[in-house]
Amino acid sequence: MPKPTKGARLGGSPAHQRLILANMATQLFQHGRIRTTETKAKRLRPLAERLITKAKKGDIHNRRLVLTVVKDKGVVHHLFTEIAPQFAERPGGYTRITKIGQRKGDAAPMAIIELVTEPLRGTTVTRTTAPAEPAEVEAEETAPKEAASAEVPAAEAAEAAPAESAESKKAES
């Protein structure tokens, strides 16, 4: 549970603010999206993402930690069995806040906070293997020169060329 902020709160007291956020998190996990004010949505996002991260771990300790916030056991079960596996590969960013304009009665800025359902795009950065040692690089650079010379038989030159092209393809990808 986040530490209540100083100054204006969502409720009248820190305890009321915690209850409001807990109820909103419960409704978010139950329905997948909720319509609320922008301020409440911005306060709810870190709490909801922290709860989803705990659900991804899936052990009994984290289930009990989530149960301290979300009081409905059915919603916690839904979070651990259905929502968390959807986000297993996603490193974060489980929620999305979309601004939808002003409320008619008091012109409060409204927003929709929802769970992201789209699959993660393949834009993750992967590390390539360490570059070859200098001795291996020199040997690879001299192989084509040897293949071009008349001293190396044609069969050995043919074997060296495909091996070099396969290594260059690996280095490019």
Automatic annotation (TrEMBL):
Keyword Nuclease set for record: no
PROSITE patterns linked: RIBOSOMAL_L17
BP GO annotations: translation
Ribosomal protein as UniProt keyword: yes
Family to which this protein belongs: Belongs to the bacterial ribosomal protein bL17 family.
GO MF: structural constituent of ribosome
Pfam families (UniProt xref): Ribosomal_L17
Ranges of Low complexity composition bias in the record: 124-134, 145-165
Record's keyword terms, sorted: Ribonucleoprotein, Ribosomal protein
Annotated segments matching region Disordered: 124-173
Assembly description: Part of the 50S ribosomal subunit. Contacts protein L32.
Cellular compartments per GO CC: cytosolic large ribosomal subunit
Origin species: Sinosporangium album
Domain of life of the source: Bacteria
Gene: rplQ
Protein known as: Large ribosomal subunit protein bL17
